[in-house]
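Bumping my old thread because nobody answered last time. Still need a sequence for this structure:
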């Protein structure tokens, strides 16, 4: 049984700091931790729990709770954004892989939720964690319920994180999460989705449950360019349609000939289309292929740490995907 934990965050000596700023200060009449980065609570390893903290900020930032932390580069995380208060992504589930955020891969109603997130005042944020599921709430508003967490570990350390300065106080961890057991969300995948690829230098990789190859899951942040391959056979001369989305820069090759090059990245807060999400069917190409075996290759480049990956569906009659091992 988890022994309840409380920390008013008034002493840096009790914290494992991985931050560009961490200091004890006074904000809105309360002593608090001013943070920009990651802080971990040493030795506080939890499985199922209710985690809550009070948070404040004076400007736009991404401030929230870290849980199921395996190491400082790999953990589950959710945060609240005051600068998108009232929008679809005011609450964001954002698992970190190899020290990269992945919100351009984990987006939509399963991973984001509208909420009112105040500026220049304290508010509470909580995460109810049970099994492979989490309910993330700002104040007493309806929670974002994540029915399938992305990381495999079922326990880990607790922490706090923010990009750009924010204030934290009164961190509490208790062993009574208020989260009813749910069936994991099922996602309607694009017809013809290519779910497995051969990643050069690594091997077989598989899409996330919602149909996106998450490169961050497999490779360290030092790698900036990858090539992935899948072979298919056309049993006769036929036309195919390739439907795909990606982040950040992608070149698509058919039989080693480039048939598409494009870029999709974060362009501000003007609207959904500016976020740089990896969306299926954003791009469509129609191609004629001869009978025989063909090589489909993706060259992907990362230019920002918000998640790099792609999704691709191969649609058309008279085609058969060959085993990944043949890539």
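Sorry it took so long. Here it is:
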């Amino acid at each position: 049984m988890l022994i309840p934990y409380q920390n008013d965050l008034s002493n840096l000596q009790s914290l494992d700091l991985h931050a560009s700023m961490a200091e004890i200060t006074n904000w809105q009449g309360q002593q608090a931790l001013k943070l920009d980065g990651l802080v971990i609570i040493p030795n506080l390893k939890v499985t199922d729990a209710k985690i809550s903290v009070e948070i404040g900020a004076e400007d736009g930032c991404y401030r929230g709770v870290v849980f199921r932390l395996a190491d400082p580069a790999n953990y589950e995380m959710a945060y609240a954004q005051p600068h998108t208060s009232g929008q679809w992504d005011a609450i964001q589930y954002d698992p970190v892989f190899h020290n990269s955020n992945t919100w351009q891969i984990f987006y939509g109603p399963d991973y984001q939720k509208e909420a009112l997130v105040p500026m220049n005042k304290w508010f509470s944020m909580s995460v109810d964690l049970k099994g492979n599921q989490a309910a993330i709430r700002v104040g007493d508003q309806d929670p974002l319920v994540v029915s399938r967490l992305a990381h495999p570990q079922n326990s880990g350390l607790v922490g706090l994180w923010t990009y750009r300065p924010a204030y934290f106080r009164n961190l509490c961890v208790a062993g009574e999460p208020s989260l009813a057991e749910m069936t994991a969300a099922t996602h309607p995948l694009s017809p013809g989705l290519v779910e497995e690829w051969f990643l050069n230098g690594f091997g077989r990789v598989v899409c996330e449950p919602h149909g996106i190859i998450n490169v961050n899951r497999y490779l360290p942040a030092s790698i900036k360019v990858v090539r992935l391959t899948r072979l298919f056979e056309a049993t006769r001369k036929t036309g195919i349609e390739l439907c795909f989305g990606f982040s950040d820069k992608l070149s698509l090759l058919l039989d080693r000939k480039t048939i598409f090059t494009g870029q999709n990245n974060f362009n501000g807060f003007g609207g959904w289309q500016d976020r740089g999400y990896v969306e299926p069917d954003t791009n469509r190409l129609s191609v004629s292929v001869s009978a025989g075996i063909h090589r489909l290759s993706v060259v992907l480049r990362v230019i920002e740490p918000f998640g790099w990956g792609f999704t691709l569906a191969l649609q058309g009659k008279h085609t058969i995907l060959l085993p990944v091992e043949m890539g």
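The longest strand covers residues 156-174. Let me know if any region looks off to you.
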